[in-house]
Structure formats: C-alpha cells, structure tokens
C-alpha cells in the first residue's frame, strides 16, 4: 500500500486542504491543535468510514462551513500495482480505478467492505500494522512480563482467540448454572408421592381440630364481652386519681421554688438601689473624660504628621547625596567615552584594508586553480590518447605479422616491428608529457611568497580589528551606562521635587508638653469613667428585676389557690387500690384465655392453608419434572462441547504465542544488524518478553539512549511486518505519530537516521510531530498551521526563512 494524495473539504478544521505524498521520509509538522492528527483520521475515514473517527457526523463537519456545504475526503492510493481513488461523503462513498469517471464500488457499506477485502486488514489490524501511535515506540518497557505477553498477543491479533475462548467459557458457565438450577429444581418422584399422601392425612386431622377450637372460642368471647366494660370503668377511675395526685405534688413543689426565687430577687433589688445612688454621684465625670480624650486624639494626630515630616526631610537629604554621586560617575563615563570614540572611528578603514587584501589573495589563488585545472585537462587528454594507442597496439599484437595494417589494410609482414615500435614511442612520449604536466601542477600547490606576505598582512589587520571591536563593545557599554545614569539622575531629581512639595503640606504648631499634661489628667478620670460604664451595665437589669419580683409574688398566690382546689377534688374521688387489683386480675385471666384461643384458631387456619398449598405445589412439580429432565440432557451435551472448545482454543493460543517470540526476534535482529553496522548481531525476546542483545556471545540488557530507541523500533517494525505478511500484503508504508515527544535532540536524530536506513524496506515513512527541528535528512516536509482568524488549518510545504536581525547603533551625545 502506498499513499499518493489526500484532499479534505470541510473535514474537521480543514476547510480546503490538499496533500501529495512522495516516497522517502515525510514529516507532517505543526503545533498542537494545528490539525496534524486529522490527516490520519481523514485517511482512516476514507477507508473504514465513521467507525474510524472520533465523535459523530455532526462533529466531523467544519464548524464554519456553510449550511449546505458537503464534507468530502478524496484519497488516492496504490495497491497491487493499481491506483484507487476513494471519495467519501457523510452520506455516500465511491471507489474509482485510476482516472476512470465511473465508480467500481458505491455506497458506504460496500466501499468499506471492498477495501477491507482488498487490503486484507480490518481497521484495528491496519493501525497495528502501518501505524505507531504516541508513546508506543518503547511499548515493552515498564510492563510486567504477563502484560508484555498480552500486548504482543494483542497487536498480533491473537486476542481474538482469547475472546472466542472467553465467550465459550462464559456460555459454558452460564449453561452450568442453568443445569445446577434444573437439578436443584427436580425432586425425587417417590418422595413427592409419599409427601402428598401424608399431606392429605394432615388436612383431614387439621379440619377436625379447627372445628373444635372455633366452638370453644365462641364461648369465651361471650364471657370476655361482659367483663370488659366493668374493667374499663375501674381503670379510668384510677387514672383520674393518680393524675390529681401528681398535679397536687407538682403545685406544692412549685410554691417552694417561687418562695426561693422571691427571696433572691428581693436581695438583688436591694443591691441595685444602692448602686443607683453611687452612679448618680459620679456620672458628672463622664463629660469631662470624653472632652479630655478628644483633645488627646487631636494632638496624637499632629504628632504622627510631625514624625512623617521629619522622615521627608531625611529622605530629601539622602536624594541630594545620591544625585551628587551619580553626577560624578557621569563625568567619568564622558571622559572615558571620548578616548574610545577615537579608536572606534578607525574600524571602517581597517575593514576596508582587510577586504582589499582578501580580494588580492583570492585573485592569485584563482589564477593558480585555473592553471592547475588546465594541466589536469591536458593530462586526461594525453591519458586518453595512450589508451587509444594501447588498444590499437593490442589489436595489432594479437593478429601478428600476418595481420592487416589498420590504415591501408595490407598485411604488415616485415613492417610489423616498425609499426609496433612507432606506437610504443608515441606512448613513451605521451607518458613523459604527463609527468611534465604533473610536476608543473605540483609546483602550483606550493603557496607563493606573495600570497604568504598578503596573508600575514591580513592576519595583522584582523587582530587590530578584533581589538578595535572589543573597544567598540566597551564604548557601547559606556554609552548604555551614561544613559542609565542620566535616567537615574532625572528620576532622583523628580523624586526630590515631589518630596519637597509634600513637605510644605504638613501643619505647624505641635507642642509635646500639652500632650503630656492631658495624658496625666485623664488617668484619674478614666478610672471613674470605667466605674460609670460598669454601673450602667449592672443597672440596665434594675427594672427587669423589679418586674420579675412583682410577677413572682402574683404567680405564687395563683398557684396556692389552684393547689387548694386540687386537694378538695382528691377527697371526692372514690378509689380503692384493693378493688382495682381484684378487677384487674379477673379481666387479665379472661383476656388471656380469649386471645390464646384466638391465636390457636389463627394458627390452625394457617396450617390448613399451608397444607393445601403444599398439595398444589407437589402436583405442579410432578408435571414440570418431565420437561426439566429433557432440557437437562440437552444442556449437558452443549456443556461438553463448549469444554472441548475451551481446551482447544487455549492450546492454540499458547502455541501461537510461543511461535511469535522467536519469529519477532529473528526479524528484529535482521533490522538491528543493518542499522548498527554489525555492532549487534543478535536480538532476543526472552520468556519474560524482555528485549536482550547478544554482544560477543553474552546476553546484556538493552542499552539506553538512541540505541534503545533503535532496538524498540526494530521490534515494533518486526511485529508490523509479521502482521502484514500474515495478511498477504507487503508493508511499504510506515506512519509514526508523535514518537519524539519524550526524546532529546540526540535521540530524535538517532530515530531519523534509523528511518533513513529503512527506506529500502519502507518506501513511505510518515512522521507526525509538533517538533520543528526534525528537518535534517528529511525528503519531504509538510507544514500545517492553524489560521486563528479564519478558524481553519492550512497546509503548505515548509520554507526556510532566515531573517537577519536588525542592527541598531546608538550615538552617545557627549557635551563638549
């Protein structure tokens, strides 16, 4: 399979994109989100349809496409010496052979089916063969041996055997569960017959017992109905008596609590009356305290501003000092700059002299090279003449004296020696001329004294230029330093001016002695003020205490009156504990007998229902047992067949996996020999599915760095080739998606060199990456960029652009 071209219209973020694929290594480069992986998705969609894409039909369409715009992908690919052109839309698909206008296959399903048969691969097999995704290059690392084995089995598509085996096991277990259920549900026929006979005897006995119990229950129900009203009156009389007793006791306790509360409130009321008198005497001090406190706060604010004023004075003095220091430094820079400027001005003249010397040297070297070339041409001409004469001499020598002369075509006879001698003399003459030309050419290689002298002059001038360039750098640094000092001086002057302006805003007239006197005066006033505040808090509850005392006295009187009334009601109730206990005993005995018979009757009725249901159930089981035995036999035959399939699939899977390791090792080893120039001659995947190298007869673990990537890629390619061979197709295409993300620059170069050496086996290698420096040894570069303004991806060949940095030179103004 070989990719030829791909066209996308309104597919994902590609509004209108076209790619032509060539042989060799092709890099599809672009930032994350630019639309690189969409290229792969479009290829797989063209071949396998919607199942090979993310999302649904609505998400495939370009979000800024017009309402009636169509989604279209056209893929041209070569397969089995034929070229196919696939067109797929959201609602239809066609396949064309080469440039024919009539499709050979139509409809979505038929196109997908045809391509699967033509490629010999399903979608999953295609991606496991031609495609290596992100982080899959080192696919055996950081896995347990069992996981490595499962992975190899999966990519070689052996897991389909496991899936079939697991399905067979699941079917077998499911049928076994059904068999267990059927066996549990089949009862013994003799046991059922005996059980039914006993149940019929039990139903007769339980019917007689139920009739007798119902008769006794009717008699007891009449006695219980007569006793129940008498007992109910006795119970209510007792409840009323006990309720009044509890109420009398509660009211007596409440009167005691009210007496205690009244005593407490009277004591609190007396204390608060005394504190009220004290509050009235000292309350006049509150106004004087607040006035004094206000004056102190005003003076403290003036004190804070006075402190800030002094800080501004200190700051201004410091700024004046810094300004003077920077002015002195600026004068030193100006003096040094004048001296270096004189040297910097000489640089153009020195450069001009160097250019002039370089041209003179080049002219002389060009003349020498031309002369040397001329000698080489003459030597080749003489050598060609010698070859021509040697051929003629060889031809005459083979024919001998009886041979014909190449000029007059007459036999040479006695002229043979003379003719051959003339040819040999010509060859000797030409060889002497060649030696002469070679000696002259060798003399030209020796550098003439004139060039040596010019070269020495040029080197001296270049040393001077280097020294002057260093001084020019120092001169530029002093320019920058002068401007920096000037900026700093201007900033300090501005800061000084602002500080002086702020200083003028501060008030005058603060006296520290006034503040001290007021602070001494407020000390005794604060003590009385705090006492006033405390008294205010305590006296806030004075009125509340008075009200509580008045309410408590009133409540006490009301409670006492109610208590006397309850005491009178207790004396009027006719209640005897002895009579109540006697009535309770008679009622309890009658109730117990009544409910015992009722419970017995209900129990007997339930037993009767259970026995009848039991008989019905036995009859149903007898009817269904025959059907269950028949079904049980059929399911057991199915279980035996599935067990045999399970054993066969397990042995077949194990055999395939055991054959895969040496086959992968052999193919990967062949790749490794070519890629390492024979450095490693054998690669092995051991029983733990670890990659080991054989080096000088010893097994060693896979090495790190770039060679580790080569080894892992060899194994990955070997697996891909095995899959392709088993599908009956040649593996001419390799796609690697973002395999460079975790590799440093050296490792990336190693992988690229590996792929370069594999182009004979893989005619097309496509690398998808967001890394921009993967360009060396690359045949084709396709760049994808996302146009944020238009909201779509653009595809175009990458162009190297070297933008020369702008050069800026500042001329320092140095005052005279």
Give an overview in words.
The chain is of the alpha/beta class. Helix content is about 70%, strand content about 10%. It is built from 16 helices and 15 strands. The chain has helices at about 35-50, 55-60, 110-120, 125-130, 145-155, 160-185, 190-280, 285-345, 345-400, 415-445, 450-505, 510-540, 540-570, 575-675, 705-725, 745-755, and strands spanning about 1-10, 15-20, 25-30, 70-80, 80-90, 95, 105, 130, 680-685, 690-695, 700, 735, 765-770, 780-785, 790-795. The strands form 3 sheets. It has a 6-stranded antiparallel β-sheet, covered by helices on one side. Strands 8-12-13-3-14-15 form a 6-stranded mixed β-sheet. A 3-stranded antiparallel β-sheet has the order 9-10-11. Strand 12, helix 16 (about 745-755) and strand 13 (about 765-770) form a beta-alpha-beta unit. Helix 4 (about 125-130) runs antiparallel to helix 15 (about 705-725). The chain is flat.
């Amino acid at each position: 399979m070989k990719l030829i071209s791909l066209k996308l219209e309104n597919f994902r973020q590609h509004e209108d994109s076209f790619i032509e694929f060539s042989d060799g290594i092709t890099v599809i480069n672009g930032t994350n989100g630019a639309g690189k992986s969409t290229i792969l998705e479009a290829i797989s969609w063209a071949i396998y349809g919607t199942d090979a894409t993310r999302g649904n039909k609505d998400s495939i369409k370009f979000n800024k496409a017009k309402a009636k715009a169509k989604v279209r992908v056209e893929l041209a690919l070569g397969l089995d010496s034929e070229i196919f052109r696939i067109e797929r839309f959201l609602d239809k698909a066609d396949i064309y052979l080469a440039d024919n206008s009539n499709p050979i296959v139509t409809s979505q399903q038929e196109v997908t089916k045809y391509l699967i048969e033509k490629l010999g691969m399903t979608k999953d097999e295609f991606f496991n063969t031609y495609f290596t995704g992100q982080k899959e290059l080192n696919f055996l690392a950081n896995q347990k041996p069992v996981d490595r084995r499962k992975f190899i089995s999966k990519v070689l598509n052996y897991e389909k055997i496991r899936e079939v085996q697991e399905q067979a096991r699941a079917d077998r277990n499911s049928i076994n569960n059904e068999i267990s259920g059927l066996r549990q549900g089949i009862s013994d026929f003799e046991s059922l017959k005996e059980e039914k006979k006993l149940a019929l005897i039990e139903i007769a006995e339980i019917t007689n017992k139920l009739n007798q119990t119902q008769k006794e229950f009717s008699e007891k129900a009449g006695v219980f109905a007569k006793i129940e009203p008498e007992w109910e009156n006795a119970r209510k009389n007792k409840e009323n008596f006990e309720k009044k007793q509890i109420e009398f006791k509660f009211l007596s306790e409440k009167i005691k609590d009210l007496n205690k509360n009244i005593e407490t409130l009277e004591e609190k009321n007396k204390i608060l009356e005394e504190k009220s008198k004290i509050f009235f005497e000292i309350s006049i001090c509150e106004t004087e305290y607040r006035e004094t406190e206000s004056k102190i706060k005003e003076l403290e604010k003036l004190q804070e501003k006075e402190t800030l004023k002094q800080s501004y004075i200190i700051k201004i003095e410091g700024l004046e000092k810094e300004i003077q220091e920077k002015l002195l430094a600026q004068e030193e820079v100006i003096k040094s700059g004048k001296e270096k400027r004189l040297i910097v001005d000489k640089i153009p003249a020195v450069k001009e002299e160097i250019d002039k010397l370089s041209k003179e040297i080049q002219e002389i070297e060009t003349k020498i090279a031309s002369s040397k070339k001329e000698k080489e041409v003459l030597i080749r001409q003489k050598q060609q003449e010698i070859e021509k004469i040697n051929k003629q001499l060889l031809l005459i020598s083979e024919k001998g004296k009886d041979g014909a002369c190449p000029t007059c075509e007459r036999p040479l006879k006695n002229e043979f020696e003379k003719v051959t001698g003339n040819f040999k003399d010509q060859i000797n003459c030409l060889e002497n001329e060649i030696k002469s030309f070679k000696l002259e050419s060798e003399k030209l290689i020796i550098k003439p004294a004139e060039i040596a002298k010019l070269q020495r002059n040029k080197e001296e001038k270049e040393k001077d230029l280097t020294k002057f360039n260093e001084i020019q750098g120092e001169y530029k640094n002093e320019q920058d330093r002068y401007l920096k000092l000037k900026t700093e001086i201007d900033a300090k002057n501005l800061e000084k001016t602002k500080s002086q302006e702020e200083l003028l805003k501060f008030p005058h007239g603060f006296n520290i002695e006034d503040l001290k006197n007021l602070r001494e005066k407020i000390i005794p006033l604060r003590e009385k003020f705090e006492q006033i505040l405390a008294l205010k808090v305590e006296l806030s509850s004075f009125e509340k205490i008075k009200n509580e005392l008045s309410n408590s006295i009133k409540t006490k009187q009301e409670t006492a009156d109610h208590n006397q009334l309850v005491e009178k009601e207790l004396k009027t109730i006719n209640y005897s504990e002895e009579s109540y206990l006697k009535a309770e005993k008679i009622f309890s005995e009658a109730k117990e007998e009544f409910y015992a018979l009722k419970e017995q009757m209900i129990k007997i009725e339930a037993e009767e229902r259970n026995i009848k249901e039991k008989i019905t159930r036995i009859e149903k089981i007898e009817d269904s047992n025959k059907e269950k035995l028949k079904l049980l036999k059929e399911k057991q035959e199915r279980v035996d067949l599935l067990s045999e399939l399970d054993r066969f699939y397990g042995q077949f899977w194990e055999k395939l996996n055991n054959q895969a390791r040496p086959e992968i090792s052999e193919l990967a080893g062949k790749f490794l020999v070519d890629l390492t120039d024979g450095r490693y001659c054998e690669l092995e995947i051991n029983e733990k599915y670890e990659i080991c190298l054989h080096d000088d007869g010893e097994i060693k673990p896979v090495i790190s760095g770039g060679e580790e990537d080569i080894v892992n890629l060899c194994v990955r390619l070997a697996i891909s080739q095995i899959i392709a061979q088993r599908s009956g197709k040649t593996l001419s295409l390799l796609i690697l998606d973002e395999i460079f993300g975790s590799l440093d620059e050296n490792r990336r170069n190693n992988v690229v060199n590996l792929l370069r050496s594999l182009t004979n086996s893989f005619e097309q290698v496509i690398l998808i990456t967001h890394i921009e420096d993967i360009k060396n040894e690359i045949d084709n570069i396709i760049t994808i960029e996302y146009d944020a303004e238009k909201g779509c991806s653009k595809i175009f060949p990458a162009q190297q652009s070297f933008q020369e940095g702008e050069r800026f030179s500042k001329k320092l103004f140095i005052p005279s």
